Amino acid sequence: MKTITAPLAFAGLLAAGAAHAQDKVTYQLDWLPGGDKAPIYVCITEGFCADAGLDVSIEPGRGSSEAITKIATGTSDIGSAGIGALMAAKATEGVPVTAVMNIFNMGPHAFYTTADTGITSITDVAGKTIATSPFTSSNVFLPLVLGDNGMSEDDITLTKADPGALGPMLMTGQADAIIAWLTDVSRYTGQAEEAGKEIVILPWADAGLELYSASLVANDTFLAERPDVAKRFIAAFTQSLEFAHENPEAAAAAVASVVPELSAEDVMGSWLDASKLAFNEVTEEYGLGAFDADRLAATWDRVAASQGLDPEALDPESVVDRSFMGE
After folding, report:
1. Where is the signal peptide (predicted)?
2. Same fold, 8-106+211-325 and 109-207
3. Which partner for 100 in 178, 224, 248, 324 could form a disulfide, CB atoms 3.0-4.6 Å apart?
4. Where are the beta strands (DSSP E) in the chain?
5. Is the Cβ–Cβ distance between 107 and 204 less than 8 Å?
């Protein structure tokens, strides 16, 4: 069993980084700031980035596709994005972006429902009204998870609504279930408690949709021209990810200190939910941040199937470079 701690080599990189001038790095989020983004804020506020000789600025995003575009054009150097979106962009556009570390080794997609609906398994959503956001990447995988369970989209009534409306729709019975991410367990659990209901969560990973999701992805020119900076950043990010896992209150405070419109309490709930996607049995088997070849290939198979792409259009190994993690 592999350790989930950062390789010892990273400690040397961090120490060496302190002697460097502060190298500027622009980090690209794949969405707005929140608890699931805690590690990068920890890296800045706890000094892990500075100790590595890095001056890191953060850019917000509006989805993985936008994040990949900004990184591909050099607007940002490195950041978070769904590896499925990167695979699709590589296959169709050949974007100069490479995944250098996994952040979430499980997909975040799930159905949320309440106990009073009688929905206790994914097959129970047949004949039900399901609400989803029009922008979530979960919609791409919905036909697959339904197909894996003997259904199609014709077997449900799918309605699209603003993300902020999904919880109220579920709690008031306007939807029998909603599609949301596992990073929002605390939020929807709280809404259910306020409505006097019990939340039921059906992760799609438990129904056969096993894949990598959020990853660190970087501009190819950045990796080629500043490989030492990239290695020091990944080392610092890894240290920050572990710190956040071990110190969720401090991680939440780090985000709230930079993004004051977010409360530390809400951030911590979101981070505790998200951290389960980074620290789990897959992590114990393969190591923190690692890309297992078989799981990577399975991820591409699912991405290709979900988007109607030729499976032969991409070698999934061409999407990743493990060397920056010291593997």
Report:
1. 1-21
2. yes
3. 324
4. 23-28, 54-59, 78-82, 97-102, 109-114, 129-132, 157-160, 177-181, 199-203, 214-219
5. yes
Taking alpha carbons only, the member of 125, 100, 103, 102 closest to residue 112 is 125
Instruction: Output phi, psi for 79, to 5 deg.
Output: 180, -170
How far CA 213 is from CA of 99, 107, 109, 162, 319, in Å, comes to 11, 5, 10, 23, 13
Residue 298 exposed, middle or buried by CB count within 10 Å (0-12, 13-18, 19+): middle
Edge-to-edge strands, sheet with 177-181: 157-160, 129-132, 177-181, 109-114, 199-203
pLDDT digit string (tens) for 104-137? Answer: 999 999 999 999 999 999 999 999 999 999 888 8
Pick the CATH number of 109-207 from 3.40.50.800, 3.40.50.450, 3.40.190.10, 3.90.1300.10: 3.40.190.10
Residue 137, pLDDT score? 83
The pair of structure tokens assigned to 305 is 């199937």
* Rounded distance between C-alpha atoms, residue 191 and residue 270, angstroms: 14
Residues 14-51: tens digit of each pLDDT: 544 444 479 999 999 998 899 999 999 999 999 999 99
DSSP helix/strand/coil, 131? strand
Please state which of the four CATH numbers 3.30.420.40, 3.40.50.150, 3.30.70.100, 3.40.190.10 is assigned to the domain occupying 8-106+211-325.
3.40.190.10
| Res 11 pLDDT > 70 | no
* Cα–Cα distance measured from residue 167 to residue 157, given in angstroms and rounded to the nearest whole number: 17
Residue whose token pair is 């707005």: 32
